[in-house]
User: What shape does this take?
Amino acid sequence: MELLYRRSLGPVVGAFLTALREQRLLGSRTAEGRVICPPLEYDPDSGDAVDDLVEVGSAGVVTGWSWVAEPRAKHPLPHPFAWALVQLDGADTSMVHALDAGSLDAVRTGMRVQVRWAPERTGHITDIACFEPEAS
Amino acid sequence: MRDVAIVSFAQAGSLVDTAESETQMLLPVINAAIEGSGITRADIGFTCSGSADYLAGTPFAFVANLEAVGAWPPISESHVDMDGAWALYEAWVRLQHGDVDVALAFSSGISSRSDLGEVLCLQNDPYYLMPLWADHVSLAALQARALLDQGLATEADLAEVVARSRRNAAANPSAHPDVRAAGDLSVDQLLEAAYTVAPLRAADCPPTTDGAAAVILVAGDRAREVCDNPAWIRGIDHRSEAHYPGLRDLAHAGSARLAAEHAGVADAPIEVAELAATFSHEELLLTEALGLGADTEVNPSGGALASNPMMVSGLIRIGEAFRQINEHGKHRTLGHAASGPCLQQNLVCVLEGDS
Assistant: This one.
């Protein structure tokens, strides 16, 4: 059984997801200058409120990964893929998302990847269809 | 702080595809805990339970579990939607109030009727992570990778944890029958298996387990009156860190380290530690975070890799740490419980015997 409902996401999470529709990525900058992406409304170290949003790049570096040989029905990709932690250019934290890399041997920590945008975007984390190796 | 001891522990630790309800699983376990405690049911001043309605698939499912306690005449009780280790923590806090001396903490979980790979996604944040259906094994594999990438462990180290867990499980009648039946597996044999979610293999992950457990807590001298060898709670603490895995250094279990500091783990040697490491690499993370040395025996029961009833595994760890004192004459032991993705939240309980 599922209960569906709508929520107002507020000025930080809402702004981030809304910007995805325009293929822009926002992070939140803490008082110490640390850029958190995807953004939080608070500094995870101090708990202080954070409302300063800055744009970060749509490409970045893989800081960790795991390889799914047999995707589950609800996974973002129907064929084998990596879960990746991606630190986008200009951000100090990593985003968890799928990485369409072809094979396990093609993935390594430190590799450059870029966002693959969903063709239709609705202000949802899945507006990022997945990441893919950066075009050289 | 008021001295509080565990005086009794009972479990149905490894039921497989049970046809029973949680209430039915709990009834004999709670009865056994009470009978083993030397107190009567009427003496219990506070009851706290742990379970997850998401597993039961019914809102307020935990209310029915009180049928296994006996709730008439009315009793004082509470519930946490967490592992039973946190129910024990609430019971310990309640006994600190000083007006009641005896508490019952119990928990139950039936994993076999759910797809944990979907149900546990619901504990992730609803905006950034849950819509991707990043399951708990996939997230755990990210943490295992962090250990490998930082040179803190090798895949052979993970297999060593699995091999030892399985050897120990062979002697534990409460371990999962499939794990016990598999027998000894060498590190080389374990490394030959295919990845489930690389770098984790099936044996690095816990078996699907149903189960229940219960403990009786008694405060002050009364604990010595009813129990020959009570296990005193010398320190208990739980800590949590940032929810989103991308914010954390996954190669270290920061909240486990904090909980250990506040529970006083380092004040004296720990002889036996029972860790709720549900994936092999988590044992390595926790051993480091809790500051446990080579002289501490880890998971002689086989640990959560040998039996992992959701919502119960942590309480069983504390129960096994109690048994090390109560039955095996150890002096100082540790029980650990965890919650959330990638060891996000950790509870540490230090127990001491009188001898």
